[in-house]
């Protein structure tokens, strides 16, 4: 097999050299095999790198990276290594779970909705450029995340990526670059970046917050890494505050509150502290200074009314198309036809739940909620198993207590991420973007790993439990 590959590669190099003789090509021909071999040995890193550039938009935060076409190169590398490990080396061991069945059904409904969408061009464009990549990469992360070191690597890379974006956001805030309404920070607004919307930027920054606290509370890690994780969380929160996004602030409160609830023994003290800190957080965020949704607007502010009108339009879209919705990415173009209030502009839905309702119908929303509930129930039972394994590790050298504690904190990060998704999703549109599906993939992989570990020590567990 190796001989055939070598002969085939030599023939290809010879033909290209005959057609385009160049010293640069000779150098590239020698380097390429080494790069390809190296890439095939780290498919998980390649997949994570592609997700990071697709979700965090690092190349848009640093425009000088644009000409390098890094997302496109990572897309090709990801596809290549996945095909290699699936069909040639067969090192990727595929498995299926009930949660993946829920996901497959929802993905199928979205696909059918594309066919019956009111504006096929918009639906097909978004589906092909974003959503199908999310579906493929979610499965890749499920099957490639196999061990504690994989979970730890994902936490670190996602946190570092978030901190990089947070630093750019804070720099823009201090220098008055790309501010919306005079106070709300953005990134890359002048080049049409997704991060140019403060709500979308807060969503990107919110996602790694749970992983920051996870690493901070992981006693199995070094103190230096834990303190750096705590500093990273502080930078992320500061950047979210600079966006003045109410959905982002809700997300911070939920993630911080969840970890505090786990770690603080005195619940009365915790509730009292929260009652004091929440108003301070709102003041620091400067929500009242916003041009929209600030204290200058009496009664129900313009921002809130805009959301109410959008949610009403979403409900009417679902009534008109209960089984397929108007199609993915079709809410905006249908707003005029279904809104009870027209101010001359189409508007975004600004809600995960109403967005899914409008674009996949009542059936799609029901399946999505079923998927979410299934993930939460599975993750909760997995956390109980981790706690039992930690207790067992005291008398079982085959179990690493420090590793299990790190995994436990990692599971807390995932659960906090889902809680944040549910709460902040009231104001942020996340139904067809990366965060939920990354959480889904990492959760399924973690649950599968703990289940295999649990079955391995099943006899010991029965003895220990009795």
Describe the model.
By secondary structure, the protein is mainly alpha-helical. It has one domain. Helix content is 73%, strand content 0%. It has 19 helices and no strands. It has helices at residues 2-19, 23-40, 43-56, 58-61, 70-88, 98-115, 120-144, 148-175, 198-206, 209-216, 223-243, 246-263, 267-285, 302-320, 331-338, 352-392, 401-424, 434-456, 458-465. It is globular.
Tag the structure with descriptive keywords.
466 residues; mainly alpha
Please summarize what this structure is.
This protein has 466 residues and is mainly α. It has one domain (96-465).
Could you give a short account of the major beta sheet? none
Q: Low-confidence parts lasting 5 or more residues at pLDDT below 50? A: 293-301
Mean pLDDT: 85
The global form is: globular
Q: Give the helices and strands as they follow along the chain.
A: HHHHHHHHHHHHHHHHHHH
Report the β-strand fraction as a percent range: under 5%
Structural class call reads mainly alpha
**Termini Cα gap:** 54 Å
Number of strands: 0
- Total count of domains: 1
Question: Percent of residues in helical segments?
Answer: over 70%
Radius of gyration: 24 Å
The helix count comes to 19
